[in-house]
């Protein structure tokens, strides 16, 4: 009886997980259109399919790049950014934060290792703020959906936000704020795959069978990951364009000036979408009347409030440092939107 009950429980949990997958959401979206507006089903599917096909070249390049970075062990170069003078560490941490090819569960053990080695919290904060915003695959996906000027602006925002957070925290700590900022860290054992902080990258990874196997595994897993999330993103964009009036978008975050950019940041932070889903949706919002500055503010604020990034900060530092992290992220998102609006 107990075995039957446990098997039933596992079956329900497996079903619940399947229903939460992007494929299930996509199927539900098209089923809803088929039932409620059948005449628009073909147009909606065609819109999503064309957009996904257009982005497929960027997805392929992004997957190859990410698999190469992981197979070569390039993450050790990021660890070296946290050696030397504190100011130098903050600058390099902000720069390398946008290049780190880590999965979400690697962020916590990586940063915990840096803190255990004595890396200053200000430098780690610079990495925390810049890392969720951009990485090589996200840069390519953003360029495919929104163009290279927007992608470069997002990358620059990541570095700028890291610098803002790192130096702001350094200044506050020098004035006595955030005394004893760290919690006692205990690894949650998310995946046990935190990157090593020593060693050298092996650029000719194909000479070693284990690294070739890692490349193949990373390519396959990331290809599936990007495909399902991009398919969901373009399905949602198709629904947005079809069923959300442009006037509604323009009323909330449309128009020029500072107010739409501020509103976009406050809307974007709780409405987090991962970095692969966000670009197509922001493209749809811009087509519906959102300004480019508000679009960047929305995307930056949403990335800062990503669940993995917030979990990393919350698990390692005390609540007041966590609040500073969110506050600096919000201010940085608004500043990025204003600067991009002026330049664009």
From TrEMBL:
<dbReference type="InterPro" id="IPR052923">
    <property type="entry name" value="UPF0718"/>
</dbReference>
<dbReference type="InterPro" id="IPR005524">
    <property type="entry name" value="DUF318"/>
</dbReference>
<protein>
    <recommendedName>
        <fullName>Permease</fullName>
    </recommendedName>
</protein>
<keyword id="KW-0812">Transmembrane</keyword>
<keyword id="KW-0472">Membrane</keyword>
<keyword id="KW-1133">Transmembrane helix</keyword>
<comment type="similarity">
    <text>Belongs to the UPF0718 family.</text>
</comment>
<feature type="transmembrane region" description="Helical">
    <location>
        <begin position="322"/>
        <end position="343"/>
    </location>
</feature>
<feature type="transmembrane region" description="Helical">
    <location>
        <begin position="248"/>
        <end position="273"/>
    </location>
</feature>
<feature type="transmembrane region" description="Helical">
    <location>
        <begin position="219"/>
        <end position="236"/>
    </location>
</feature>
<feature type="transmembrane region" description="Helical">
    <location>
        <begin position="294"/>
        <end position="316"/>
    </location>
</feature>
<dbReference type="GO" id="GO:0005886">
    <property type="term" value="C:plasma membrane"/>
</dbReference>
<feature type="transmembrane region" description="Helical">
    <location>
        <begin position="139"/>
        <end position="169"/>
    </location>
</feature>
<keyword id="KW-1003">Cell membrane</keyword>
<feature type="transmembrane region" description="Helical">
    <location>
        <begin position="90"/>
        <end position="119"/>
    </location>
</feature>
<dbReference type="Pfam" id="PF03773">
    <property type="entry name" value="ArsP_1"/>
</dbReference>
């Amino acid at each position: 009886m107990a075995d039957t009950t446990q098997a039933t429980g596992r079956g329900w949990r497996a079903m619940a997980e399947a229903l939460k997958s992007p494929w299930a959401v996509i199927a539900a979206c098209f089923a809803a259109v088929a039932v409620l507006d059948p005449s628009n089903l073909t147009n909606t599917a065609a819109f999503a399919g064309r957009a996904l096909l257009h982005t497929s070249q960027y997805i392929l390049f992004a997957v190859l790049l990410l698999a190469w970075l992981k197979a070569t062990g390039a993450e050790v170069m990021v660890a070296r950014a946290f050696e030397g003078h504190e100011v130098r560490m903050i600058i390099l941490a902000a720069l390398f934060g946008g290049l780190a090819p880590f999965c979400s569960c690697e962020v916590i053990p990586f940063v915990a290792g840096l803190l255990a080695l004595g890396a200053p919290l200000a430098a780690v904060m610079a990495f925390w703020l810049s890392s969720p915003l951009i990485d090589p695959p996200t840069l390519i996906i953003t360029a495919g959906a929104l163009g290279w000027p927007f992608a470069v602006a997002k990358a620059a925002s990541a570095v700028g936000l890291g610098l803002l957070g790192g130096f702001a925290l350094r200044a506050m700590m020098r004035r006595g704020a955030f005394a004893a900022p760290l919690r006692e860290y205990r690894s949650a054992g998310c995946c046990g795959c935190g990157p090593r902080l020593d060693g050298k990258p092996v650029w000719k990874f194909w000479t070693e069978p284990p690294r070739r196997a890692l490349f193949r595994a990373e390519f396959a897993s990331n290809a599936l990951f990007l495909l399902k999330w991009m398919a969901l993103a373009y399905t949602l964009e198709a629904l947005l364009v079809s069923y959300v009036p442009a006037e509604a978008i323009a009323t909330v975050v449309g128009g020029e000036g500072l107010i739409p950019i501020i509103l976009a940041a406050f809307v974007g932070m709780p409405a987090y979408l991962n970095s692969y889903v966000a670009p197509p949706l922001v493209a749809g919002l811009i087509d519906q009347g959102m300004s480019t500055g508000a679009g960047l503010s929305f995307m930056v604020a949403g990335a800062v409030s990503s669940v993995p990034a917030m979990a990393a900060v919350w698990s390692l530092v005390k609540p007041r440092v966590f609040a500073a992290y969110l506050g600096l992220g919000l201010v940085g998102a608004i500043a990025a939107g204003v600067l991009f609006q002026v330049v664009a």
